[in-house]
Write a sequence for this structure.
């Protein structure tokens, strides 16, 4: 497993994120949050796409295992501050993925605007409508459990569940539709499929997670759209 030694991949994620954010800002003239590793890239750099294609070819293909024993609690504390910056992971993701953010104190994001990567819909986030914006695990927890995370240590599962590279702020509707499905069963809007595949493959490779044959084929198709 390579989950404990991800500095190089995270450094690459920063470059990809900045390129994607700059592209969006050029399109609509809006200020974006661009300073945090792992921000949701809409148009990955060619190098990131090439790495994803290479890494996908190296991922093990396996059938899904059993869901027996899965509970969300098996993946530890929700939104634990694993990067020790003083803020929980949920607020870190909101700060990274939303624009025009408003805060209460140093960490608590109370308002902002989400350009949902999964659907393209604009969502105005407020605390009173917090469920409209949810934090998705790109590689779902329940799917990871079925693909081998059931054999991980509790510490590794908790780190996986709170890894910013695997977390994405999205509209609640497509997030509920996605649930614990892999890319072979669910896909985002076409314009985000390339970036989604790059992120999905990076997480699978970092944690040594296999993919099903259907997911592998779908990821290949998504990467062909880059």
């Amino acid at each position: 497993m390579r989950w404990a030694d991800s500095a190089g991949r995270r450094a690459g994620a920063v470059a990809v994120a900045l390129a994607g954010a700059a592209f969006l800002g050029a399109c609509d003239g809006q200020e974006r949050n661009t300073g945090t590793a792992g921000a949701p890239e809409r148009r990955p750099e060619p190098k990131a796409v090439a790495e994803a294609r290479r890494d996908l070819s190296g991922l093990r293909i396996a059938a899904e295992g059993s869901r027996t024993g899965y509970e969300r609690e098996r993946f530890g504390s929700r939104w634990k501050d694993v990067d020790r910056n003083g803020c929980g992971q949920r607020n870190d993701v909101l700060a990274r993925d939303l624009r025009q953010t408003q805060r209460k104190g140093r960490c608590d994001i109370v308002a902002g605007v989400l350009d949902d990567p999964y659907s393209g819909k604009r969502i105005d986030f407020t605390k009173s409508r917090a469920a409209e914006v949810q934090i998705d695990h790109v590689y779902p927890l329940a799917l990871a459990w079925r693909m081998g995370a059931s054999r991980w240590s509790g510490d590794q599962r908790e780190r996986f569940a709170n890894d910013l590279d695997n977390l994405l702020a999205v509209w609640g509707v497509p997030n509920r539709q996605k649930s614990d499905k892999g890319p072979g069963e669910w896909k985002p809007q076409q314009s985000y499929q390339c970036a989604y595949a790059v992120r999905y493959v990076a997480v699978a490779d970092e944690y040594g997670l296999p993919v099903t044959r259907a997911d592998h084929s779908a990821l290949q198709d998504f990467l062909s759209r880059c």
Summary: The chain is about 40% helix and 15% strand. The mean pLDDT is 87.
